[in-house]
Amino acid sequence: xxxxxxxxxxxxxxxxxxxxxxxxxxxxxxxxxxxxxxxxxxxxxxxxxxxxxxxxxxxxxxxxxxxxxxxxxxxxxxxxxxxxxxxxxxxxxxxxxxxxxxxxxxxxxxxxxxxxxxxxxxxxxxxxxxxxxxxxxxxxxxxxxxxxxxxxxxxxxxxxxxxxxxxxxxxxxxxxxxxxxxxxxxxxxxxxxxxxxxxxxxxxxxxxxxxxxxxxxxxxxxxxxxxxxxxxxxxxxxxxxxxxxxxxxxxxxxxxxxxxxxxxxxxxxxxxxxxxxxxxxxxxxxxxxxxxxxxxxxxxxxxxxxxxxxxxxxxxxxxxxxxxxxxxxxxxxxxxxxxxxxxxxxxxxxxxxxxxxxxxxxxxxxxxxxxxxxxxxxxxxxxxxxxxxxxxxxxxxxxxxxxxxx
Length: 406
Ligand SMILES: Cc1ncc(COP(=O)(O)O)c(C=O)c1O
Prior knowledge:
Number of strands: 13
Mean pLDDT: 93
Strand order of the largest sheet: 2-8-7-6-5-3-4
Bound molecules: pyridoxal-5'-phosphate
Largest sheet: 7 strands, mixed
CATH superfamily of the largest domain: Type I PLP-dependent aspartate aminotransferase-like (Major domain)
Radius of gyration: 22 Å
Number of domains: 2
Shape: globular
């Protein structure tokens, strides 16, 4: 059986069109020039970068391609937004606001500012579906707040935040607003020139581009402190010789995402819905995590009672499925022993939405994508319920529950 990949929120394969577009910029006789060089080879590389910038700008609806800065990944883009804004605007105040369900690229950047530089951070709670309340944000804004950072969509449960409402509150209060759009770029329409958003991060490898490239949208006029110091690259905003093949790949990936979104989003959503409904119908004591409606069309996160998410992921891996145990970060490292010894923290997102800890450990994320088909869903609905049954048949917890009739 061909492996079935359900882990597109972790990373996506590079699309053939992207790979082909990058190839000349990696070939020894091709466009390997340094975009800062004045000669023909350099200027070819420069032109390729600028056309990619236009493609990225088009996907996110930026008013001007100059508002896009290439970075090495989504993490760097988030760090540049959060730390760059904090350092550039510390005269205004030293308070930041974010949410409890952000990616660690934002949470750990905030933590760094708190611990190492004396900033104060408010972590907004979320409701049981993972949404931030605009009322909570309104109440948390202070005269010394310099930045609010709330993700557009969550990587674990797919919940989409009310970005326009939250951004409006910030704009009215004269506070910069950053959104981590790493999971939403390419999946849902973004219109940053119209939205009250000042900064937005994205990442190549989440939308069928290569790893090692990301971008930060910086609204014209917004000042950030640079994180990297060196040459005058990226208009003095991010020093370092540009990753030309990466930028070209990201550009083509953005172009394809924009061109195909209107057909691809509903196609993937229909597959996801069939998978989700099928699992919830066929597997007793299975629960959906995330917002029923305001959610990315490719993501479903399900808790299976009395099942170790890790064991399920490994059992399914053997059966040809690649997906992710969201209970614990990083399947690669979450071995049974590490888990039992309590070395790993359970998912902060599932905790924040109030999933009980035993259920967190039985939670699995399915994130679908461009290459999934109806046949994948048929296979999943055949195999996954049987895998859950088998694991439960070995589980003393399940046995006790059966005896107790719960
Ligand atoms: C919401 C979100 N933000 C940021 C990142 C970090 O992106 P990258 O892997 O490109 O550093 C990820 C990656 O999982 C993500 O899902």
